[in-house]
Specification:
The structure is a single chain. With 360 residues, the protein is α/β, with parallel strands linked by helices. Helix content is 32%, strand content 19%. A seven-stranded parallel sheet has the order 3-2-1-4-5-9-14, sandwiched between helices. The chain has a four-stranded mixed sheet with strand order 7-6-8-17, with no helix packed on it. Strands 10-13 form a two-stranded parallel ribbon.
Length: 360
């Protein structure tokens, strides 16, 4: 199979490229090399693949690259929580407009198979159950509660404490950030494309991906990278809230394997299918900071309270649908994965914003 990988020089895309090539597939990488995630030159791990430096929003370029392609693995995106609303045009352009251009070009080239890098952020908060009212969607947390150190969401109906659980794929989409809104839009475009063309789409909702080749020293990076960058400078990782917010950390090699499975498995019944790519195991943000600090022999994490405006409290996913439909379960354990990540090569961005964003 010949596969075009957009964002193929990036963190996840480069691992997908390696995984597909190792399985005998022919890969073609397209990457704009955005400065938020890349240095001035393509990273060394892309040297073994054919890499085209270009923009997914360039329809003429896509028309040329899609000749002879059997499937597209769409990883290209502006990622991360975002700094403030001034990032909105960037997310809309690099994520949503680019996806629309790609889908139009795939239609013209009669390419009918797409694997889309989606995200757990489409859910907003995770799944919660009230002992009185059952499964309920929590309301956005109030700044006054955050300032007072009340981080756990309460039942919107009776005010009782909620118990976090595992998020299934049929949970409602309630995006809380610019990035999340762009990912919801990508899924909707892909759904419409599949309906209109008879194409097949797997939307892989990545949870907190970490591992080698993460971008560093940028607020658009994941929390694991932010913590590691602080430790590398000899600084204590700064953990927001009380450090007990739960996340689903999944290693990038597992994510790459999920992409390989999705590229070769038929979508059930055709059309659009979304699955969580996750471990299904909750670990706290504070635990990630503590384990990294121990492995790197660095200072203990500092819990600083507060939260960013769009932060959610707990998001841990159910892995069952991906296991049933793709045969995918995460294989890299948390402790071993974090220990490897502590010394793994990261990527230096070409431009670093001066607006600091602590982890959480």
């Amino acid at each position: 199979m010949r596969v075009l990988i957009t964002g193929g020089a990036g963190f996840v895309g480069s691992h997908v490229a390696d995984s597909l090539a190792a399985a005998g597939h022919e890969v073609l990488l397209l990457d704009l090399l955005l400065p938020q995630a890349h240095g001035d030159e393509p990273p060394p791990w892309s040297a073994g693949h054919t890499l085209v430096r270009g923009d997914v929003r360039d329809g003429d370029l896509l028309a040329r690259l899609l000749r002879g392609v059997d499937a597209v693995c769409h990883q290209a995106a502006m990622v991360g929580h975002g700094v403030d609303p001034s990032d909105a045009p960037g997310y809309a352009s690099h994520n949503d407009h680019a996806t629309a251009v790609l889908l139009a070009a795939m239609h013209a080239a009669r390419v009918r198979r797409l694997v889309l890098a989606s995200s757990m952020v489409v859910y907003g908060e995770g799944r919660y159950a009230c002992p009185v009212d059952g499964v309920v969607p929590p309301e956005p947390r109030r700044p006054a509660d955050i300032d007072a150190g009340r981080f756990e969401p309460a039942c919107p109906q009776c005010g009782a404490p909620l118990e976090p659980g595992l998020v299934p794929e049929d949970a409602p989409m309630r995006p809380r950030s610019l990035y999340a809104a762009s990912k919801v839009a990508q899924e909707h475009y892909a759904t419409a494309w599949a309906t209109q063309t008879g194409g097949e789409v797997w939307a892989l909702r990545y949870h907190n991906v970490y591992g080698p080749r993460m971008p560093r020293d940028t607020p658009y990076a994941g929390v694991a990278s932010i913590f590691r960058s602080a430790l590398a400078r000899g600084h204590a990782p700064r953990v927001l809230e009380d450090g007990r917010q739960r996340r689903d950390f999944v290693h990038v090699r597992d994510v790459a394997r999920a992409n390989l499975l999705a590229l070769t498995a038929p979508a059930p019944g055709g059309g659009f299918t979304a699955v969580n790519v996750c471990s299904g195991e909750p670990h706290t943000v504070g635990e990630m900071a503590r384990v990294l600090a121990e492995v790197m022999s660095g200072p203990r994490p500092v819990v600083v309270g507060g939260a960013r405006a769009a932060d959610v409290r707990h998001v841990v996913a159910s892995p069952e649908l991906a296991a049933r439909l793709l045969g995918f379960r995460a294989a890299v354990g948390f402790t071993a994965g974090v220990a490897e990540f502590a010394t793994a090569p990261l990527r230096a961005p070409a431009q670093v914003t001066t607006r600091s964003t602590p982890g959480g």
